[in-house]
Structures are given as C-alpha cells and as structure tokens.
Protein: SprA-related family protein
Organism: Halarcobacter mediterraneus
Amino acid sequence: MELNSYGQSPSTIYQQLAQKRTELANIDKKEIEKSEADNYDKTNPSNEKFDEQDYQRVLNKFKTLDNEVKIHEETHASSANTTAPIQYNYQMGPDGKLYANGGSVRFDTSIPEDEASANVKLEELKDASSAVDELSNADAQIARTANLNKLLLQRQGESYEN
C-alpha cells in the first residue's frame, strides 16, 4: 500500500487501512484462541482419561439403578395380584439408551366380602408391599393401610360376635 500515490483517493486509502486492521484483528484473535487452548491443555493434562472414566461412572450408575428398579418392582408384582403391568419411569443415559429410574405396580386392592378371604388378601397386600429390602414411601403406606384394614376387619368381626 502506497500512501503517497496521487492516483488513490482518500476513501480508497481508508478502505485499505480498514482491511489491514481487520486482518491484524483476526491474527490477534487466532493467537488468543491458541494461547487459551494451550493454557487449558496445561491445566487439564488427562482430559480424555477423565472424560472416559466419568462417562463410565455415570453409565454404570444408570445401569445399576435400572437393574435395582426392575428387581424392586418385579418383587412387588410377583407377591400379589396386580391390575396392570408394571410401569417404569425412564431417563436417557449418556449412551442414548433409556434406563428405568422409578416404577410402580398397581395392586388389586378390592376386598372380598368373606372375612377369611379379606384377611388373606390384606395379608398378601401387606407382604407384597413390604417384600423388598428398601421400602419407598408408597410401599410403606400400602403396608400400613393393609394392616389397618386388617385390624378394622378383625374389630368388626369381634363386634358382630358380641
């Protein structure tokens, strides 16, 4: 670029200066980006190992929870009559697959009119809801309700006998 050239107009010279400033700014931007990337690599030397270990740890948690939830709900379902299939809540794992993170079983809670059958059914509901190692709040509530209903049924039977 020749500034003393009489053949160039001032607007052309300003355009050339603006273009040179833009080129210099892009060079500066690239140098800053490279410097930041180098600094990041220095402070995080094992990025790939950490990411793979973290990925596997999270994936294993998803798989473990999925297995625990399915065993938990299947244990409930196998211990009493149900009115619907097991329903699971799913969450997408880091590998893009769906994993169960919760679930529910709908027990048949109808009470037979026969007192002996009602007692058997309430005991079955109580056992089915508390059959797992770790009771959820819903499990504990079903067990308490079945136990309370059984006590009420026994109390009614006693009052009819007197």
